[in-house]
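Running co-folding for alpha-D-ribofuranose.
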Amino acid sequence: MARNVILDVDTGSDDACAIMLAALSEELNVLGVCAVNGNRPLSDTLTNTLKIIELLKMEDKIPVVKGAAQPLVRDLLAGRNKNPKTAEIQLDENGEEICYHPKKFNLPEPVLKPVDENFVTWYINTIKNSSKKVTIVPVGPLTNIAIVLRAEPSLVDNIEEIVIMGGGHDVRNSTAAAEFNIWKDPEAAEIVLNSGAKITLVPLDATHAASTRLSEAQQYRDLHTSVGDLFAELIEIRTRAYNILQPLAEPDLCPIHDALCVAYLLNPAVLKNVIHTRVDVDMGGGFADGMTIVDTRHIHNLPDNCYVALDADRDLFNKILFEKIATFKD
Ligand code: RIB
Ligand code: CA
């Protein structure tokens, strides 16, 4: 029986991979995809999401929802970002920005429109009207989810699990302390972590362990489909960005962070070294702003609030990815 899921995305290259994986998995019934401000401004993440749903030819099956355009409070606090995220934009030999997430995907402008309903009522109605509990998969900043759960706290009774791509225990990216999704809206993350829902956190420790190799892009090109070609292109874009902006343990790797959350729903064995403990988020606005504090020694005196995956099965993850993407036919 298919699992009812909602993806919350800041599309983004790896968000696009997560959407394609979820939409092509018959084990999942995607009730909708909600866009949020994150990798790019909401106008871009929403448009990119609409483009991916159209590429998948699922305009009539998967609604797209327009979410929040700004973090809860983070940007209201002048000077909060004492710890500059990254250096200035880097350009390649053609003067193009070297980045993980194209501003606009190289796909036709979408005809599809987002649903004509605000995301809060859409989430509440969709989840309450679902025939079974819903799994939410936030793979961008948690702004939308925090607002929805503040509006309707009892919604957690209809939520099977929240599988979050975010945080980092020994691995960070946006700053020396924090991972992007959490850093972009720390207060939202803390609200969701303490909402009372069952939470599985998929941090950078796991997503980096599951990294895809540049050499694996060719198998997607060999599918000779529009989805396979885009998947290969996104691997190439991400790998180039990592090689230049964030060198990993070895060259020509790219973590496809968000898709690992979806793969976990298809086969939980992709996540390894999963511990149940307490995770909190630093909201101090200083150098640790947005840091996820994972209490691996259980020395806290607060309730445990989430399952945290500190490792992943790279080969199993990439096997699942390819098997599902290969099912798409133009
Ligand atoms: O830190 C990685 C996360 O930040 C991913 O979800 C990526 O898409 C960006 O949103
Ligand atoms: Ca994302």
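Result summary
The chain has a mean pLDDT of 95.
Residues 10, 12, 14-15, 38-39, 139-140, 258 surround calcium ion (ligand 2) (CB under 6 Å).
Job closed.
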